[in-house]
Amino acid sequence: MYDDEDEIKRKRRKLLITIGIALFLIIIVIIFLFVKSNGKKNIVEPKELNCKLVVKSGTANENGIYESEVLIEFDDKEMEKNEISNYGISNRQTPVYNKQLEYKISTNGKYKIYGYLEDANGNTGTCEIEIEVSLTKPSCELEVVSGTMGENDWYVSDVVVGFKNKNSNSETATIEKYYIEKKVSDLDSEEIIKGEIPNENIEKYTIKDNQTTQLYGYVIDSNGSEGTCDITIKKDTDIPTCSLSVISGTSNSSGIYTSEVTVGFNTKKDETSEVVAFGVGTSENYSDETFVVTASGTTKVYGYVKDSAGNKGTCSIEIKRPTPTPDPPDNPTPDPPDNPTPKPESYPSCTLEIIGSLNGNTYLGNTTVRFKSKGSTNGASITSYGIGTSAQLNGQDSYTITTTGNFNIYGMVKDSNGKTATCGPVNLNVQIPTLLSSNVKIGDYVAYDAGTWNSNAAIPTANKTFGGYQSGNSKNSSVKCRNEDTSTASGWRVLSVSGNTVTIIHAGISECYYHAATSADEAISTLNNRAKTTYMNSFAADARMMTLNDYNISTTFQNIGSHYYMATRKDNTTLYYVSYTGRLSGGSARANGVRPVVVLKSNVTTTGKNSNGAWILILDGNTSKDFDTEISHPQSYIELFNNTIKKVEEIINKIITQ
Questions:
Q1: Is the pTM value of this prediction over 0.90?
Q2: Peptide bond before 340: cis, by omega within 30 degrees of 0?
Q3: How far apart are CA 563 and CA 130, in angstroms?
């Protein structure tokens, strides 16, 4: 049975409605899935950022302890992986976003440094690194324990070298290992090749070889820090050798010379040093390079050689000449004339001069003695000369002293008539300065002068001004800040030693200062500016008033026995203040003391302590200009009389001739 037309239309309409509803539901599902998918993409899951700290610069020893200033930074590769919007490095465990990419450590100690990162979505990352720094190296100095000194700083025996100084220079570390070894260099790079650290400590080293030997000393502390030192020793026990030969002369078939014979050196040498003096003759001399044999019969001629160390050697040769035939009796040899023409006398002379830096009665550093003049009279000329620790004709024009000690230096000349003369001795007390930093330790007194003070200066009445800096006669003593401060204890003492730099602090009564409580920053500026203008001199690289860092650097000076301020701000309005007990607090607006701190230049040297026990300061080993000292040749009264007579005769002869 077929449906009518209306029924068909009704069924079609119902089908279309069903299809529409289905399509609508499908579209709703698609829209829901799309929105849900996009929503998931917009939700940011929290994550921890990669953070890593590394050492940018610094030198660590084999124990991992840094012996130089350390600079810490973020690892660039880790930073590039994250879109960082905020960051920071500090020694605080709680997050600090200080916009610092680097952190510097320049004082001794163990440190834990933290790094913090944050990106735009609020994700964070934390990292840390532990660093131990020990900038204080052990001190090291070598010296000759035993050995026989020859000439020109050469030793003529075995030499034993030992440690003169091996201190840790640290309050926490102790010396664990020390040894001495011979210098060995790489043939290509010429760098020093260090041997393996021995199992046992080596206190001394014996030099047996004839040569110039350089020894290195090594001192290692419990932190692994290493101090080095060196010494150069010249040793020569070799006896110089020589040989002689005939330079001119005629001999017959029997080897007998029928004419005058001139003998000279064929060879002269030394295996270690060099031959510096030599001579030929029948008696010991170091001036005549040849000898003429005129005597009949057999003459034994000797050669004499001496090396730089003072070792002497000889050689010889025999010369035969015929025995003369006696004159016949009827033809006697005529007598010489009654009045032969005398050969003019000659009088050689010399003077010496000293080139060096004199401080009082002592020469500082290498000092040279040389001829200022040398000559002779009556037409004679100087043919040989020499300078040394004894009168000798060694051919040297000067003598340089490079070691500490007391020396007598002589000059000697010889003229063409064979006459000799000496000048001197010149007596010199010589000291060779060494770096101050290699000698001093924390707490030592230092002879530093940077101004004059009045020991009873009045308390200043105006804020922000110094008191006590007035003209006076008292050097290296401080002012009184209170009526009960009666001590005038003075002296600069070593606060710290780092490398070649020594920092000192004034350890007397602290200098008066009236603090303005409303302006700590201005007070600090005033303090340090005044310090630079007051305490700077040629020895100082920097000067300031004591800071909190200076206070913390050494427990030796945390309680010096007097109240004082420090040029360090506790807050916006007060400075740090230290009481008699060493307690730290904020300072009040009343008169109080400040201690000056001076950083000495790295080239400051010393020759030892003065009578007060304070180290003497010298810059580059020089405290005065070079100058000349003339030492005149002391002639005898007879020589002076003869010279005067001859000069008078010359004047009379000129007058008669005219």
A1: no
A2: no
A3: 36
